[in-house]
Fold each of these.
Amino acid sequence: MAKITEVVDMEKQGGVAVIMINNPPVNALSVGVRKGMVDGMKAAGGDDSVKAVVIACGGRTFIAGADITEFGKAPQEPGLDVAFDLIENSAKPVIAAMHGTALGGGLETAMVCHYRVSTPSAKFGQPEVNLGLIPGAGGTQRLPRIVGVQKAIDLCAGGGQIGVEEALKEGLIDEMIEGDLVAGAVAFAKKVIAEGRPLRKIRDRNEKIEAAKGKAEIFAEARKAYGKSKRGFEAPQANIDAVEAAVNQSFEDGIKKERELFMKLMTGSQSAAQRHVFFAERECAKIPDVPADTPQLPVNKVGIIGAGTMGGGIAMNCANVGIPVKIMEVNQQLLDKGLGVCRRNYENTASRGRITMDDVEKRMSLIKGTLTLDDFADVDMVIEAVYENMDLKKEIFAKLDKICKPGAILGSNTSGLNINEIASATSRPESVIGLHFFSPANVMRLLEVVRGEKTAKNVIATSMAFGRRIQKIPALVGVCQGFVGNRMLRQRGRETQKMILEGALPQQIDKVIFDFGFAMGPFAMSDLSGLDIGWKRGESKGETLRDRLCEAGRLGQKTNAGYYDYQPGSRTPIPSPLVEKMIKDYAAEKNIPQRAITDDEILEKSLYPMINEGAQILEEGIAIRPSDIDVIWIYGYNWPIYRGGPMFYADLVGLKKIYDKMLEFQAREGDIWKPSALLEKLAKEGKGFKDFRR
Ligand code: T1G
């Protein structure tokens, strides 16, 4: 094996040159890989004893794309086009041997080869759209020529993957190799040589795009579908434009169009945001004082207390990945109701074809009900999910302390109560941790893992790993009221509640937040979750607008009336003249002056207090890094991913601008707007949260 570059070797096996890429962790197309492919192809081309070339990778996957860490930096030669030109125009057949996930530039590399083989488990995709991009090396022009236009649109604009069966059917790969991939690829190459097979170029295959010529409706329908499912995202639309160019323009012109669209996205804020989130998600798993090799405890059995909405959803998360669950309720009726909700959720998923009825039964068989905590004696982890009452939680944890085996992790799904106080009810505070799921727990991907003062490092490491195992994105946070997400949400709620009393109606505020990119605004969200959370009819004295709405029976969607009206059976919010009158009457009673409030002010007053609270959270060490706060808001509250999260967005706006606006509001409305010390410091230094270091 001859070393071509640090990350590329080449060896001859009979008349076949094998270019082997070893660039862990995912064989990204770094400059060393590109140079290795160029030099390897030149060497193979100049060696008469070489009759064919195989391009393969070591490690866990074939090339998984361009090296995203190089984006935004000065490009280094050779570019990918130099390597692709040598491969596609080689006088000798070049075969891509793929395993793992051949993604982005990896699939593009394979598509400039003349033939493609893969392992049975390989997957293929152009997921650049998830980074706010389109394929930039011919993927939008070659993929439709081989898998057809509609499939290419869905792979490029949707960012999904296809497996070997579909790839074989569409002709994306020519043979599936059982056993040793490289040996199989070399044997395939020798077959190509022996049979004198042609040097096929995908770029020259036009039959599948011819079929789409003149069918503008294909693209119009795609634009409408992705415009709805990916509202506000630029990249899906650009991918559709690029595939359309493959159909309506020459290959060369299509490549030019692709490059133009790619560069526009690459230099735009959405891709910068989505690339930021890609790395932020992975950074979130890294805890400075809990090394990655911290020993973990086993989690083979989980006990859940409470079979309500949250407990049921948490149980489903465990069953989804094969972890047996015992779920406890205080009576059979509530237990049966909770298990029934789990079953119905699974059956709904099966009716959409995402799982089979067999999966439903398998998963439900993993969720066992019980009416006694004594059944938790053998579980490795408990997750308490009862209602937010500290006394009740402490009573439960005291019982768990006596029942559970030594080393069992005792978790609480509390959305903001003090984990240290809950831990104080046990003799094992080192085993107590917060595991804060977001409703609906079986859907939302965020898991706030709350470390108490005494939580042991192996309990933290185990809980973070458990979060990933149940397909969540765990973020480690500290103890304070509301932890990170809800503490920041409260700031937004404070201001939006004030603004509706000053003249901005719920529908105006919700539209501003919806247009920013959230799935819904705060008032529609309140109607969805219910205005009566924490409200008690017997104690209500009409002191707040929320009291008065609840007293009037306007509890939200569940009563077809909340901040909005709802037609029976419909979730579409309808502005309510009655609520508008209630708001105006309440404001008049409180002598609150009315004024027109601009959309800009609504956005500033909704987001800047959250950003300022995020800065305070960092100062207090409640979050490890600003990008963790971004991950929390994207995966816990659907902050639009193409805006990168509140702290990334703040850097885009500019901290100086936010700081000055905070001072302006402070002068007008008091110290509630006082900028945090960190925000002031970074603003005055002309820096951003990206420069924050502990
Ligand atoms: N570049 C650089 N680093 C990457 C990378 C990439 N493309 N993909 C992953 N990593 C790092 C990641 O940060 C992490 O680092 C480690 O690898 C393991 O990743 C030219 C322009 C391949 C399915 O979008 O989807 O090609 O945290 O934790 O769960 O037209 O990584 O360990 O230090 O995700 O097993 C297109 C992105 C790029 C694929 C593996 N390709 N990657 O998942 O491991 S643009 C992508 C993934 C492009 C072309 C265009 C996943 C994975 P660390 P991981 P995993």
Note: Residues 25-26, 28, 64-69, 101, 103-105, 108, 127-128, 130-131, 133, 135-137, 139, 279, 282 surround (2S,3S)-3-hydroxy-2-methylbutanoyl-COA (CB under 6 Å).
Amino acid sequence: MDVLLGAQWGDEGKGKVVDVLAPDYDIIARFQGGPNAGHTLIFDGRKFVLHTIPSGVFREGTINLVGNGVVIDPVTLVKEIHGLEAAGVDVRRNLLISRRAHLILPTHRALDAASEAEKGSGRIGSTLKGIGPTYMDKTGRNGLRVGDLELPDRMDRFRALTSKHQRLLALNDRPGASEEAAEEWLGAVEVLRSLQLVDSEHYLDQALRNGKRVLAEGAQGTLLDIDFGTYPFVTSSNTISAGACTGLGIAPNRIGRVVGIFKAYCTRVGSGPFPTELHDDTGERIRQVGHEFGSTTGRARRCGWLDLPALHYAVMINGVTELAMMKADVLSDMSDLRICTGYKVNGQVTDRMPYDITGTIEPVLEAIEGWGPLRTDDPLPPGLERYIAMIEAHVGVPVKLVSLGPDRDQTMYRSGVLVN
Ligand code: GDP
Ligand code: IMO
Ligand code: MG
């Protein structure tokens, strides 16, 4: 099994690269996160944004598996399925859902909103999809799982957890979830029950034994990881390669390649530290040219220079074997580019990610030359090749794919192919 994941703060372009690589795999499997994710795919003049369904869905014959580590909101999932079906995509035939995946209830969304309101100015900037409360119920051993929907007492279980949440919300004078939301959820559950529910750990074990090729698709990014991200401004799952093992039930020694996706610059949506953030016209220019607005929430993404210490950290934590660089085209017409090669913490320069990057950390920036326009048919311009060489030298792994635009076809391989 190979793993593909975000090496920054999410929205690196994972959806695009999974779609590009999917023909080389039999199964694409999401292993964590939920509808907080928004993975964009563009091909043949069409654009799709996926939230729960893996990004192999547009490739004929590819199996798309939603693993046990994912949290599923039946309402969003069913909307996504209907949207794809309306666009002529036969989703259900090749879609498998793990029975062990946990369910997001309407009250989880209400709890998410309550938690953010409680935090006030210290809020995470959550997508408010109910992700945190659902993972809390999972680790708190209260959660409802997809497999529970096959049990005769499923309604009782739903009502019991819902009323527990509603009591908690009422106690704190926070709005609960409406009865209409509960009805909508129950309606969506009937559709979910009709999908192919599997014991995905056994399914994947058998598939791997039969020589099938599996690509695990990450959501969010390394710096949003619950353990290794910029805590507490993170999401509630393990977004790193280890998360692919727990989120799919696949042993670590079955992982082959680990593909880290990064942008030629950095973005972050929501609150939290961002050492290379640009608060000036340059940041605004990157946002406009790169269309840096959230795929899930539409929020403006914060933009800044590429952060090599953070990228190096992501390579280390994930065991990244190769990198894919996205959106170099966005910086094409810009001069006065910078790259962050270290951090100044208390007057000391370090290229290590410190425990806490809030507050007094200052990025050490180096000027880099620009590279002008990029064309898929031409070799990469020397300025961009030098930029890539600098990145490779710093983080110690090759950049094997360069993306030159949002379309499936605007993709270039460097030094051989990305997959076996
Ligand atoms: P994901 O969450 O990692 O799948 O990334 P998103 O889909 O949230 O955000 C990436 C955005 O960049 C999407 O709008 C993509 O269409 C777009 N994109 C991906 N690769 C490129 C690229 O190389 N150049 C440009 N200009 N846009 C890209
Ligand atoms: P993809 O898969 C970028 C951010 C939110 C917030 C924090 C916690 O498209 O890369 P949550 O909803 O999980 O409680 O939010 O994480 N976040 C993402 N940022 N891309 C994502 O997913 C994200 N999913 C969550 O903005 O700061
Ligand atoms: Mg996204």
Note: The first strand starts at residue 2 and ends at 6.
